[in-house]
Inverse folding.
């Protein structure tokens, strides 16, 4: 899986086409008719760029990104946009591995499964803001 976020390298030749697609997707100056820098519009453009990359086989990652770790899932930086518009991270899970419950702290994120399958469980925050109620949150699992 590759995780793309808007937090902010030298681009390796193997991923040059992918990075070019992502750069275009997050460039508001070329997308004024498609939502500009509105985060929701950017997410849709990044998703479309990733779908196009999958179809064009532009997501063949260097082998070191595909290695699993025995103790936990692996998380490796693929690319950090020098303009700080996004960061691409490759996460690799071995069989039976997972990620604990988390949020993205208001950052946009697009996940792309390159190889294998992933199961994602989503939750909605139903009460709590981290400051009241002793810092407690109440969550409800979204129906699948
Ligand atoms: Fe996540």
């Amino acid at each position: 899986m590759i995780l793309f976020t808007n937090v902010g390298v030298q681009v390796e030749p193997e991923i040059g086409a992918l990075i070019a697609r992502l750069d275009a997707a997050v460039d508001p100056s070329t997308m004024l008719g498609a939502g500009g820098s509105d985060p929701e519009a950017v997410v849709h453009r990044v998703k479309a760029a990733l779908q196009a990359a999958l179809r064009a086989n532009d997501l063949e990652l260097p082998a070191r990104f595909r290695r699993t770790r025995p103790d936990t899932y692996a998380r490796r930086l693929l690319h950090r946009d020098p303009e700080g518009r996004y960061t691409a991270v490759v996460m690799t899970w071995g069989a039976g591995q997972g990620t604990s419950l988390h949020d993205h702290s208001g950052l946009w994120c697009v996940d792309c499964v390159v190889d294998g399958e992933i199961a994602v469980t989503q939750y909605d925050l139903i009460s709590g803001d981290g400051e009241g109620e002793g810092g407690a949150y109440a969550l409800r699992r979204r129906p699948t």
Notes: Residues 3-97 form one domain. The mean pLDDT is 83. The CA atoms of residues 4 and 110 lie 5 Å apart.
